[in-house]
Automatic annotation (TrEMBL):
Designated name of the protein: Major fimbrial subunit protein N-terminal domain-containing protein
Cellular compartments annotated: Fimbrium
UniProt main location, coarse: other
Organism placement in taxonomy: Bacteria, Pseudomonadati, Bacteroidota, Bacteroidia, Bacteroidales
Source organism per UniProt: Bacteroides faecium
Domain of life where this protein originates: Bacteria
Length: 296
């Protein structure tokens, strides 16, 4: 069976129907769009982030000219993660944007597609460690289509791996020159909003993480994507009682990525490196687990 390496797989079916589930949901029985979306439970490691649970979900629908058609607020999902949305099929759909776990945006602030994709968050409304998730697709059609969508986290995660070495002690880690805000939806070149400021985060340890189990410390930092800026990481500690500082760079930070700081002894000194990989935690989800169901 073909495997799909995506953290969230969304099965989407759009069909033109001649009837509705209820009169309230379908004032006009002819020619309506019905969306059926399923977000399967994560599988694999079992160490999934609490933020990965979809608590709130909004959908923004735009026509082929980028004008807002409909905003579905706080969409309810059943226990299987299924939702259904209805639209007047006489209007051609140009794009659909999904926004999960983000504060409600007033309708008068999103009149066009540009209003939404150019909207940014900031520290006053959403910090990186409480990341939200997004997904979107474009389809200028009035017929039946089927798409697979992947939800993307708005932030990236910085982890620390020290191995199990009793001679290595870590006092603190600092990451600097990181963005304090982000666009809600990804932009080309991973660009940042014009009013972005670059800041510094520090994590201090009461007891050295290197003296614990030797497992990777996950969620050391959560950061927004950095555009073309280089982030700087400094690790302060000791090896065999001798003070040490390790400086590392992350040339580009992209949303929904993992950056793992790895420290290991080489002779009497500590060397460091940073591993970059897509944030795929939750394991592989096979196509058979998508449970696609066509509405007819």
């Amino acid at each position: 069976m073909k495997k799909i390496n995506r953290i969230f797989i969304t099965a989407l079916t759009i069909a033109i129907l001649s009837s509705c589930m209820s009169e309230e949901a379908c004032p006009e029985k002819d020619n309506i769009y019905s969306f059926q979306i399923q977000i399967p439970s994560l599988t694999g490691s079992g160490n999934n982030e609490s933020n990965d649970v979809v608590n709130t979900l909004d959908a923004y629908i735009f026509n082929n000219k980028g004008k807002s058609i409909r905003h579905f607020k706080r969409i309810e999902m059943n226990q299987e993660g299924m939702i259904r949305l209805a639209l007047d099929a006489t209007q051609e759909i140009g794009s659909v944007y999904f926004l999960a776990n983000y504060p409600n945006i007033p309708d008068n602030e999103v009149a066009t597609e540009a209003d939404l994709i150019n909207r940014s968050t900031s520290q006053t409304t959403e910090s990186p460690d409480k990341y939200f998730m997004t997904s979107s697709f474009k389809s200028a059609t009035t017929g039946s289509i089927r798409e697979e969508l992947s939800f993307t986290r708005s932030a990236s995660r910085i982890d620390l791996s020290t191995g199990d070495n009793p001679l290595l002690e870590i006092d603190s880690i600092t990451i600097s020159n990181v963005a304090d805000r982000s666009y809600l939806f990804p932009h080309s070149e991973h660009s940042t909003p014009e009013n972005t400021r670059f800041t510094t985060y520090t994590r201090r340890f009461a007891s050295s993480p290197a003296r614990r189990t030797g497992e990777t410390l996950k969620g050391l930092f959560y950061v927004y994507e950095n555009g073309m800026e280089t982030a700087n990481v400094s690790v302060y500690g000791r090896y065999n009682g001798v003070n040490s500082r390790i400086d590392l760079d992350i040339p580009n930070i992209y949303r929904n990525y993992l950056y793992t700081i790895t420290l290991k002894p080489v002779g009497q000194i500590i060397e460091g490196s940073i591993k970059t990989e897509g944030w795929q935690e939750g394991g592989e989800i096979t196509a058979g687990n998508v449970h696609t169901k066509t509405i007819i």
